[in-house]
């Protein structure tokens, strides 16, 4: 059985990566639109 703190930390990490991915995707689209 997984530790709740470990599971919570993993969820936060995944959420952070997802938000970072969205930001990166927006930047890429902006750069492509600029060219």
Account of the 3D structure:
- The protein is an all-alpha fold and 35 residues long.
- 89% of the residues lie in helices and 0% in strands.
- It has one helix spanning 4-34.
- The longest helix has 31 residues, at 4-34.
- The radius of gyration is 15 Å and the shape is rod-shaped.
- The protein starts with a helix and ends with a helix.
- The chain crosses the membrane at residues 6-24.
- Keywords: Membrane, Transmembrane, Transmembrane helix.
Low-confidence stretches: none
Tell me the fraction of residues in β-strands, as a range: under 5%
Helix content: over 70%
In terms of structural class, how would the helical and strand content be classed? mainly alpha
What's the number of helices?
1
> How would you sum up the global shape?
rod-shaped
Report Rg.
15 Å
Order of helices and strands: H
Strand tally is: 0
User: Mean pLDDT across all residues, rounded?
Assistant: 91
Q: Give the terminus-to-terminus CA distance.
A: 51 Å
* Main pleated sheet: none
Would you spell out the secondary-structure blueprint of this structure?
Layout: H1 4-34
Keywords: Membrane, Transmembrane, Transmembrane helix
Transmembrane segments: 6-24
In short:
Keywords: Membrane, Transmembrane, Transmembrane helix. The chain crosses the membrane at residues 6-24. With 35 residues, the protein is mainly alpha-helical.
Features:
transmembrane; 35 residues; membrane; 1 helix; mainly alpha; transmembrane helix
